[in-house]
TrEMBL record:
This is ArsR family transcriptional regulator. InterPro entries: ArsR-like_HTH, HTH_ArsR_DNA-bd_dom, HTH_MetalResp_TranReg, WH-like_DNA-bd_sf, WH_DNA-bd_sf. Coiled coil: none annotated. Keywords: DNA-binding, Transcription, Transcription regulation. One of its GO terms (molecular function) is DNA-binding transcription factor activity. Gene3D superfamilies: Winged helix-like DNA-binding domain superfamily/Winged helix DNA-binding domain. It comes from the Bacteria. The keyword Transcription regulation applies. The keyword Transcription regulation applies. It comes from Kribbella sindirgiensis. Residues 23-102 form the HTH arsR-type domain.
Amino acid sequence: MSVESARARTLSHVDPAEVPLQAALDALADPVRRSILRDLAVHDDWTRACGTFDLPVKKATASHHFAVLRAAGLIEQRDEGARRLNRLRRAEFNTAFPGLLAATIDRAD
């Protein structure tokens, strides 16, 4: 029997196909969020924990950025012990918004 932590229950994931275009654009507009996505794009799935990103913001602000990315269908997260691991949902997002991810994260700011 598995006991789900209260922290894990707070995670909700949206199908990118259900995300309004404006929400996707808003999520991609922020340079901190784009840096998170760029980092995830060059690492294997589930190898980057939230606390391992070198971000120019405080922990609470970083948490907000991860939540925005999750709500826009750009990332998936799962808890593993005390760490929250991340996965870029490139294929799913590209199905919903062809070319949008590449046009934003594959370019220099």
